[in-house]
Amino acid sequence: MSAFDDDLNQRLAAVREQGLYRELRRVDSPQTPHLQSGGQTLLNFASNDYLGLANHPALKAAAIRAVEQFGAGSGAARLICGSLAPHAELEEALAAFKGTAAALTFSTGYATALGTISALLGKDDVIVLDKLVHASIVDAARLSGAKLRVFAHNDLDDLEAILQWAQKRSATTPGKTLVVTESVFSMDGDTAPLREMVALKEKYGAWLMVDEAHATGLFGEHRRGLAEALGVSDHIEIQMGTLGKALGASGGYICGPRPLIDFLVNRARSFIFSTAPVPAASAAATAGIQLVQSAEGKTRCDQLAQLIQQVSDNVGNLKSLQSPNQRLLTSSPTGAASAIIPLIVGAESRAVAAAQQLRERKLFVPAIRYPTVARGAARLRVTLTAAHTQADVTALLEALKSLDAALPDLN
Ligand SMILES: *Cc1c(COP(=O)(O)O)cnc(C)c1O
């Protein structure tokens, strides 16, 4: 095996050289603002558990009940014999929450994107992606074999030019055109102009898929997502999201019309050929959806908004750490700002050094690098959750201030 090991070690050395080496950090506690890791308590600004539900008693109780009633495993794929009551209950809750006719859940958001896009599109079709969409959507687009076109981030003119091209192409070539965007972008925290995108896709007869991974549970009057906040939910063919972020559990979903869901049950390979999610995960997600819709869900969103405001009032003073969504934080078109606050550092090695320095101050803020973001656009990605306190955020801001002062010296 040594030649095999040598080959991989060489590749890893190349990854290290570029400042792109990643390693797992063991955490010995639940996902809360105070993580136990490596014998230390770290103040956690890395999690996507935006509403602080991952360790919520109601979700834990639902998961435990599901284990007691349905066991630890799910036995088989949904279509074989693994379609259990907790899966059906979750899908009913999701459809009701999002106001769609039906819903389908997958074991992860990643599997959701892969299965859905590759089921809907083939080589005759065109898929049009925002430059910054998540890796799961890029991988899904490639897997589908559809002709791939990318528009500059949130650039409606660029999108329209591509849709014009696709419309011309459709005069001579069969096939559909699908536009895919995120609603709140995962690494920048900014939002897509969904109203204008809906108008464009309708003008050119395309379909629209919106990934609400970072907006579900957070935006809109009923916290359904950015599409609700912008009043366009009913104009989006395919609404996607994850159960693993604000909803506090794990899994992915598609919400939409009944024929879409029936089609995916028949054609989405990551759904068909994969063991059903464990009952505990689905039951916890159902509890997460119920919580989001409750008065407590609203209170948690309001608490989160206050913390976002506290940060946005202060990060503007940082010199070496620029936050491109700062303007957006203070003047969000929906009145709700995203809990994702990127602080652009530039070089990969600088971002790693900056994250290391924060860790020495017992703060856990991840350095996000290529290939998650473009080369040279490495950043610290701060995420806030409703479980943080104002004191937590004050500690963050103090640490960022001294990091900012030290940054020009960091290499
Ligand atoms: C996290 C994420 C996914 C994947 O969801 P998982 O449930 O974590 O697999 C998909 N899209 C976006 C935008 C994400 O941020």
Main sheet strand line-up: 3-9-8-7-6-4-5
How would a textbook summarize the main sheet?
7 strands, mixed
Beta-strand content estimate: 15-25%
- Helical content, roughly? 40-55%
Query: What gap, in angstroms, lies between the N and C termini?
Result: 37 Å
Rg on CA atoms, Å:
22 Å
Q: What's the shape? A: globular
Please render the helix and strand layout as text.
Blueprint (H helix, E strand, L loop, with lengths): L1 H16 L16 E4 L2 E5 L12 H14 L7 H5 L2 H14 L3 E5 L2 H12 L5 E5 L4 H10 L2 E5 L4 H15 L6 E6 L11 H10 L3 E5 L14 H4 L8 E5 L9 E5 L1 H10 L1 H4 L6 H15 L1 H21 L10 H5 L9 E7 L1 H13 L2 E2 L2 E2 L9 E6 L6 H17 L5
Parallel strand pairs: 2-11, 4-5, 4-6, 6-7, 7-8
Antiparallel strand pairs: 1-2, 3-9, 8-9, 10-13, 12-13
The structure holds pyridoxal-5'-phosphate.
Feature tags:
411 residues, alpha/beta, seven-stranded mixed sheet, three-stranded mixed sheet, 13 strands, globular, binds pyridoxal-5'-phosphate
